[in-house]
Design brief:
The chain is of the alpha+beta class and about 160 residues long. It has two helices and seven strands.
């Protein structure tokens, strides 16, 4: 074998080695690129889901119930702190044998509509034997006409 042939063979072998290394690296990069695209697609899906949930929560009412004392009088405050309107709102004390609710309750509930940032005040006739905590159920109809409810524990 002549020097020229040996040199040609070495150049050819070197080219094959460089091509193989380049092919392996390209495949590795392509695999990483596919994984990155998959992760990006999953993140996009989660972001769209979060945006949809945020949009839904903006149209939902969110209630808060408190029991407050002002002077010698006590009151249940039912507040809609959400951004949606609730219709046909009802208030119920669960497992309460000695209800502190007074006559104005039947006039105020079911409440026809509670818009965002609105509240209803109910007089509560408390006495020495009244329980320290009450379980309250608020039920309502959302803008789509579906019934929803929530349960709260309120204390004096």
């Amino acid at each position: 074998m002549s020097g020229y042939e040996t040199l040609t063979l070495l150049v050819s072998v070197t080219a094959v080695i460089i091509s193989t290394v380049s092919l392996v690296r390209t495949r590795k990069l392509a695999k990483e690129q596919l994984e990155l695209e998959r992760v990006t697609a999953e993140l996009s899906r989660l972001q769209i889901q979060t945006l949809e949930e945020d949009r839904e929560s903006r149209t939902k009412p969110k209630f808060n119930v408190t029991l407050s004392k002002l002077g010698k009088s006590s009151f249940f405050y039912i507040s809609n702190t959400g951004e949606g309107t609730a219709y046909g709102v009802n208030f119920e004390l669960i497992d309460c044998d000695d209800s502190p609710l007074t006559g104005d309750f039947s006039e105020k509930f079911p409440h026809p509509e509670m818009k965002p940032n609105s509240r209803v005040k109910l007089y509560a006739a408390m006495h020495m034997g009244s329980p320290l905590k009450y379980q309250v159920k608020i039920s309502w109809k959302n803008a789509a006409g579906e019934y929803e409810d929530d349960i709260f524990w309120v204390t004096k």
